[in-house]
Amino acid sequence: GVIIFNEGQPGEGADDRRILLTGTLGTPTTNIPVVSTTFAVGDELAAAGTTVTLTADTESDPHRKTRNVLAESRRGDPDKVVMLGSHLDSVVEGPGINDNGSGSAGILETALKAGALPTRNRLRFAFWGAEELGLLGSAHYVAGLSAEERAKIKLYLNFDMIASPNHVFGIYDGDDSDATGAPAGPAGSDEIEQFFESYFTTIGKPYTGTDFTGRSDYGPFIGVGIPAGGLFTGAEGIKTADEAAKFGGEAGVAYDKCYHQACDTLANIDDEALEVNTGAIATAAFVYAHSRTLPEA
Ligand code: PHE
Ligand code: ZN
Ligand code: ZN
Ligand code: ZN
């Protein structure tokens, strides 16, 4: 099933941003073992406009099903889909607030606001399940696309860890301009990277190129040639002296010292990073949702 945004016009009242549910919530993924915390984000999307509370499901049956939750704008050319995604699951060791409540909050906020806007292109949001078990939710989704459906997805933007306490502002290096030797993304990924670079330049924040090796849910998308990009503030890697000079924070310490641990709680969020990156997400969503030209794969 798919969650569809209400068609309400801006200014029509409190119902403007309500999101309607059609069919069953989420796309069941078959037989995926999940032993992690999940959030009832679909219910919250459905109740947009009310206070968002996240309910934790600590069920640990290794054979239970998990779900991807998909939300899509009702307006915009259905043949030109601009897609954003983040994973909702965490590792079993901790609540996963930076990894990846942060990215999920960023796209959820964008999705809720997007409900009141007309768009030229179709906007689709994915809240992936089972990323931590090997990108299972996103891989299942991409594998299930027909060639026709796949061709409609013009770009995919991924947000996995966007508020690390000792953060850098990382932009996926889709063109390997940092010459790390990592394979560059599909054609068009360079353009997405440049979009984010110009955003950070405009708001006067430093940025750096970061890992684009497929270690998150964009992997299955670039695997089938869909241009992709995204933001990342760092995981278990250690901040260098140069990075500390550029971004502040502590050299010689992990970007996220609570990565995949019990201490990945609300206290593990850098508010400034969350705000800056959520602004980047919303800007990217609205610019691409309205753009006449989209990255050429
Ligand atoms: N996908 C990793 C996770 O969820 C996070 C990560 C992304 C780490 C990219 C390194 C590089 O744990
Ligand atoms: Zn993780
Ligand atoms: Zn993650
Ligand atoms: Zn680059």
UniProtKB/TrEMBL annotation:
Organism of this sequence: Streptosporangium minutum
GO biological process, one term: proteolysis
Molecular-function annotations in GO: aminopeptidase activity; metal ion binding; metalloexopeptidase activity
Parent-record interval covered: 197 to 493 of 519
Keyword presence, Zinc: yes
Taxonomic lineage from the root: Bacteria, Bacillati, Actinomycetota, Actinomycetes, Streptosporangiales
Protein name: Aminopeptidase
Keyword Metal-binding: yes
Residue span(s) of domain Peptidase M28: 68-282
Family membership noted in the UniProt record: Belongs to the peptidase M28 family. M28A subfamily.
Sorted UniProt keywords: Aminopeptidase, Hydrolase, Metal-binding, Protease, Signal, Zinc
